[in-house]
Each structure stands twice: as structure tokens, then as C-alpha cells.
């Protein structure tokens, strides 16, 4: 029995289109996805603003809230919670140069408008978390923006969100690159610095994605540990990634099992989830996956996470302490490998 509650986003079941080719699977409706997420054993759903409210730009605030309430009813019918809402700022014609850090003031205003509407949607869905993935907050042409102004604009935008809703919590999801070449806020350490510079650091924390940490050349478990040490790790996107290249969102644990084990272990050791935090699985199906297997990568990620939970439960802390006392790290390492490799 898993001690974690798991969450997932509608984008984790997709048609397989990538930068080099069109869709290869049929689209599945949000209603069907939500029903299936419940069957698979998820407890909550994560949303982009326009996952919950398509055509959001065309609607008034009242219409947006009314549309979001329909999605809330869908969640209630299936016994699922909403975990968070994230403004999808990277897909819009207004944000081709970024959102909060765009050089054009009108585009920065648009980014804030979408963020405040995302808070409205979160309230309608009954959740108090807003996630900001800074997709285009950085540069492709390094001289095109000031990194100093970019971070100051970002702090101003977060402060406006904190003012707008006294209960909203902001979770920043760092990523060092892609689609930008250079991000202004690439790691959980950056996020904690940003949090400290806002008007209410107690409501600004982080979401760590395994693949994003690996893209930064860092260990995801230690990034998780940094957020936990600050008391500000409020969500995770567990997945896997083969080295420093494009963001792959592979099934959790399939590239580096020991690294995956250590992510689960550090979450368990620190009672992650005891304040209602979810373990999000942000994974994508392979392009070769057939329609009938549209959810297989999610099933596999859940299975692997739960199997690693069992391994973490078996981890012998007294034995670890003995190895540490004798400074026998060769022995400790082999113990971990045997724990992972033996049934
Ligand atoms: Mn990713």
C-alpha cells in the first residue's frame, strides 16, 4: 500500500505529436481522461488554465469561472481533487518573447492577466496552488533581455498574484533551458531565492521535476532535498531523462533506477505528503505507442514508484549507520545495489 497520493495532468495522455511530426494517436476527451485517472489509482489532477477552460482568451472572468465549475463537477463525479492550475503562457501569440519577462509591457500585462484568471480557476476547482513553469522566461538571444530586470519583473508579477488572493500558494517549477536557451531561474535554489525576495515567502515555494534537475546537470534527489530543507517543496514531477538533451519526460525510473530510488527515499524519509502534497508523475508516452496503450506509461510509472516505495521501506537504516560509522561507503553502495537488484 502506497503512502503517497499521486497526481497527473491531462497533457500526460497526448496524441504523440512532436517537433518533427504530427499526431499519431487519437485525442482523448478530458472527461474520459479524468475517469481513467481515477481507475488507475490517481487522487488528483493537475491543470493548465486552458486544460480546464479552453479558449480562455475569448472569455470574460465570469465565463471563465463558470467553465471551471463544470470541470469541478467532473472531478467530483469521479472522486478526484484538483492539485493546481498553471497558466500556459508559452503557447500564446502574446508570449512568444516570454510572459513576465517579455520586453513588451503589454505582453507582461497579458501574462499577469492569465495568471490572475488561473487563480480564479484554481478557486473554482477547490485548490489553493498555482504553478508557474517559466518556459520562455529567459533568452534565446542573450543580449535581448536583462537578467536583472527579468527577475525583478518576475518578483513584481508574483507579488501581484499574492495580493490578488490571500490564500493562494505559488509553486515555481524551475528548468534550466528549453524552450529558451538560457533560463533566468534554473534550479530549486533559484526558486528559493526568488521566494525570499517576494512580499510573502511563506506562500512561495517550489515544484521539482526530475528531468529538469537532470537537464541542469544536478541530482533530482538532492534538489528535492534542498526544497524539503527549506520547507518549501510543495509538489514534484517525477519522471526520467537520459542525460543533458531535450526534455524527455520518460517513465519514472527507466533510465536511472538508483537515482529514482533516492528520490522516493528522500521523500519518504521526510514525510512528504503529510501536509497534503501529491506525488505528480509528469511522463509522456513514446511516439510509437499505440492508441490502446495511451495510459501505459502512467501505469508503469505508478508501478515503478510503488515498487521503489517498497524498496525504501526495506532500506536498513541501522545497517546504513554501521557502514557510515566504519566509513565503508563501498559496502553501503553494494548494499543499495543488492537491495535494488534482488527480488
Ligand atoms: Mn519535463
TrEMBL record:
<comment type="similarity">
    <text>Belongs to the xylose isomerase family.</text>
</comment>
<dbReference type="InterPro" id="IPR001998">
    <property type="entry name" value="Xylose_isomerase"/>
</dbReference>
<dbReference type="InterPro" id="IPR050312">
    <property type="entry name" value="IolE/XylAMocC-like"/>
</dbReference>
<dbReference type="GO" id="GO:0046872">
    <property type="term" value="F:metal ion binding"/>
</dbReference>
<keyword id="KW-0479">Metal-binding</keyword>
<keyword id="KW-0413">Isomerase</keyword>
<feature type="domain" description="Xylose isomerase-like TIM barrel">
    <location>
        <begin position="35"/>
        <end position="255"/>
    </location>
</feature>
<keyword id="KW-0963">Cytoplasm</keyword>
<dbReference type="GO" id="GO:0009045">
    <property type="term" value="F:xylose isomerase activity"/>
</dbReference>
<keyword id="KW-0859">Xylose metabolism</keyword>
<dbReference type="InterPro" id="IPR013022">
    <property type="entry name" value="Xyl_isomerase-like_TIM-brl"/>
</dbReference>
<keyword id="KW-0119">Carbohydrate metabolism</keyword>
<comment type="subunit">
    <text>Homotetramer.</text>
</comment>
<dbReference type="GO" id="GO:0042732">
    <property type="term" value="P:D-xylose metabolic process"/>
</dbReference>
<dbReference type="GO" id="GO:0005737">
    <property type="term" value="C:cytoplasm"/>
</dbReference>
<protein>
    <recommendedName>
        <fullName>Xylose isomerase</fullName>
        <ecNumber>5.3.1.5</ecNumber>
    </recommendedName>
</protein>
<dbReference type="InterPro" id="IPR036237">
    <property type="entry name" value="Xyl_isomerase-like_sf"/>
</dbReference>
<dbReference type="Pfam" id="PF01261">
    <property type="entry name" value="AP_endonuc_2"/>
</dbReference>
Amino acid at each position: 500500500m502506497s503512502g503517497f497520493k499521486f497526481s497527473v495532468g491531462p497533457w500526460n495522455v497526448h496524441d504523440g505529436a512532436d517537433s518533427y511530426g504530427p499526431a499519431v494517436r487519437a485525442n482523448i476527451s478530458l472527461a474520459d481522461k479524468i475517469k481513467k485517472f481515477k481507475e488507475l489509482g490517481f487522487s488528483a489532477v493537475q491543470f493548465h488554465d486552458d486544460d480546464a477552460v479552453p479558449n480562455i482568451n475569448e472569455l470574460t472572468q465570469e465565463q471563465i469561472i463558470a467553465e471551471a465549475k463544470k470541470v469541478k463537477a467532473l472531478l467530483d463525479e469521479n472522486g478526484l481533487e484538483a492539485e493546481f492550475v498553471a497558466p500556459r503562457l508559452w503557447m500564446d501569440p502574446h508570449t512568444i518573447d516570454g510572459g513576465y519577462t517579455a520586453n513588451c509591457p503589454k505582453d507582461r500585462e497579458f501574462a499577469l492577466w492569465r495568471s490572475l484568471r488561473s487563480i480564479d480557476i484554481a478557486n473554482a476547482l477547490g485548490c489553493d496552488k498555482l504553478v508557474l513553469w517559466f518556459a520562455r522566461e529567459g533568452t534565446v538571444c542573450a543580449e535581448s533581455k536583462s537578467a536583472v530586470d527579468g527577475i525583478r519583473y518576475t518578483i513584481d508579477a508574483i507579488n501581484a498574484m499574492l495580493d490578488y488572493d490571500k490564500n493562494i500558494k505559488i509553486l515555481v517549477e524551475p528548468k534550466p533551458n528549453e524552450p529558451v536557451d538560457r533560463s533566468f531561474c534554473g534550479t530549486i535554489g533559484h526558486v528559493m531565492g526568488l521566494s525570499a525576495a517576494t512580499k510573502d515567502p511563506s506562500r512561495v515555494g517550489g515544484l521539482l521535476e526530475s528531468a529538469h534537475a537532470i537537464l541542469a546537470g544536478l541530482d533530482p534527489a538532492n534538489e528535492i532535498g534542498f526544497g524539503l530543507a527549506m520547507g518549501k517543496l510543495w509538489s514534484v514531477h517525477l519522471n526520467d531523462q537520459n542525460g543533458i538533451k531535450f526534455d524527455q519526460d520518460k517513465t519514472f525510473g527507466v533510465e536511472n533506477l538508483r537515482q529514482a530510488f533516492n528520490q522516493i527515499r528522500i521523500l519518504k524519509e521526510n514525510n512528504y505528503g503529510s501536509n497534503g502534497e501529491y506525488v505528480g508523475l509528469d511522463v509522456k508516452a513514446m511516439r510509437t505507442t499505440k492508441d490502446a496503450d495511451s495510459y501505459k506509461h502512467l501505469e508503469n510509472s505508478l508501478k515503478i514508484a510503488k515498487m521503489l516505495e517498497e524498496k525504501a521501506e526495506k532500506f536498513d537504516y541501522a545497517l546504513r549507520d554501521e557502514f557510515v560509522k566504519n566509513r565503508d561507503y563501498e559496502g553501503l553502495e553494494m548494499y543499495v545495489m543488492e537491495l535494488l537488484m534482488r527480488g
